[in-house]
Design brief:
By secondary structure, the chain is of the alpha/beta class. The protein is 40% helix and 20% strand.
């Protein structure tokens, strides 16, 4: 039997070795999920789903430390941030349980024309069907919540394929769901190779595909979906920030640093491109560099660590090559720019890298923040919008008009005012537009997308 070795991103030691399944096992999982959906007598009523999710949250609350160490160990996110992720995940389960009561329809007016007299019409929401979820490594527990609990809460059987680098948190969570009373097969985990994973996604029995990961893979898989399969694709970005000349620099530096270096920049909405008015650019860039120099980089299981490893050595090699390319092309290296080990890279700040450098045009997904000088805010916004990826953006200013105009002009699904681009809570809409994705995440929004509307029209001469 083929196996998958789950490695520590910090030192590449083997954490666990687990079976790797193939097409037959994936087909078996889909068969079970589809049979559940087809047999409406096996559907769980809302109150049962609510009770199961409430017990799930209780069980998780008693295992915060265990789940934290698991997530930090396999994903490399520092202990303090992994613990925050676990607490978010628990709250996410609670949000889904509460949101079940909002899966409802409404009355459609009739009698507005002679042809529609003597009728009542109502919509209702039904589960969309089998959900196939493919997840990413950077939030191994919380992304599992967003891609499984949403489906279960909406009444859909779900089969999830976690990231091959971080499957353990997903496996642990599904076991907790079962322990909380979820009947067998409503949520199944498959640890599969690429060929079997593609079969999972493209099977005609799948009604909804949830994907978090690279644009290349996401758009490819969408092109292979069976007719009628709906999808949500969450890809990456190169999040831009506009910094106005009237800001208080000491106030904006901490959120910029947090947004840029959290989880070593391995977040789809990490602060990457910071456009600063010329009179403030040196102060902002140098201030950001001073913070970056003081960040504690190291073992993610050490509670003192603030920046952990990149997920794989090849990602460090890529980030290092991109930074070197930018410096050779004229970017000023204010701090960092060196590897600490095969997994750790110094938090790095670059000033005015060329517009065509990889760090300016592609998602870095590493601990690197680029700062650019501008004199015309309209031109800065134009540069911010110039790429084909558009996710979250932000503007720092004390001028309400500047804030409102920037929100209007920035091409993004969300614009933060006086906060970093990586802000997120799990009940808000979250997703990319254009090349950054399709559909909308966020627990209530995902649950809504995993249901579909049915109309009932009643005709009676007595109405």
């Amino acid at each position: 039997m083929k196996t998958l070795k789950v490695l520590s991103p910090f030192d590449q030691s083997v954490i666990e070795e687990i079976p790797l399944v193939g097409k037959q096992e994936v087909d078996n999982a889909l068969t079970k999920a589809y049979a559940l959906f087809e047999d409406q007598s096996s559907w769980l009523p809302p109150h049962e789903r609510i009770a199961i999710l409430e017990r799930t949250a209780e069980l998780m609350q008693g295992r915060v430390e265990e789940l934290t160490l698991r997530a930090a160990g396999e994903g490399g996110k520092p202990y303090m941030d992994s613990k925050a992720e676990v607490l978010r995940a628990i709250n996410g389960v609670k949000i889904a349980a509460h949101e079940i009561e909002n899966l409802k329809g409404g009355q459609i007016p009739m009698g507005l024309t002679p042809a529609s007299e003597n009728r009542w019409a109502f919509t209702m929401r039904e589960p969309i069907g089998v959900v196939a979820s493919v997840s990413a490594f950077n939030h191994p527990l919380n992304l599992t919540i967003h891609q499984t609990v949403t489906a279960f809460a909406a009444g859909c059987p779900v089969v999830i394929k976690p990231a091959s680098t971080t499957p353990l948190s997903c496996i642990a969570f599904v076991e907790i769901l079962k322990e909380a009373g979820m009947p067998e097969d409503w949520c199944q985990v498959v640890i599969s190779d690429r060929e079997a994973s593609e079969m999972l996604v493209t099977d005609e029995r799948v009604n909804y595909f949830s994907f978090i990961g690279s644009a290349k893979v996401g758009w490819y898989l969408k092109s292979k979906l069976s007719p009628g399969t709906r999808c949500a694709l969450e890809h990456g970005g190169a999040a831009p920030v506009i910094v106005d000349k009237n800001v208080n620099i000491s106030e904006i530096l901490p959120p910029l640093a947090k947004g840029g270096f959290y989880h070593a920049g391995q977040v789809c909405v990490s602060v990457q491109r910071v456009f600063v008015e010329k009179s403030k650019v040196n102060a902002v860039a140098n201030g950001l560099a001073e913070i970056a120099k003081k960040l504690v980089v190291g073992d993610p299981l050490d509670p003192q660590t603030e920046v952990g490893p990149l997920i794989q050595p090849k990602e460090l090699d890529r980030v290092e090559a991109w930074v070197n390319e930018a410096v050779e092309a004229g970017a000023e290296l204010l701090c960092g720019g060196k590897r600490i080990s095969d997994s750790l890279y110094e938090p790095t700040v670059l000033l005015n890298p060329p517009a065509d450098a990889k760090v300016s045009t592609l998602e870095i997904f590493g601990p690197v923040v680029c700062v650019y000088s501008y004199t015309d805010r309209a031109e800065a916004i134009k540069m911010a919008n110039a790429l084909d990826v558009h996710f979250q953006a932000s503007v720092f200013t004390k001028d309400l008009d500047v804030a409102m105009e920037s929100v209007k002009l920035l091409n993004a699904t969300a614009v933060m005012v006086n906060d970093h681009t990586a802000f997120r809570v799990d009940w808000m809409p979250f997703g990319g537009r254009d090349a950054s994705g399709e559909g909308m995440g966020g627990i209530p929004y995902s649950m809504h997308e995993m249901t579909r509307e049915k109309l009932m029209v009643i005709k009676s001469d007595l109405i």
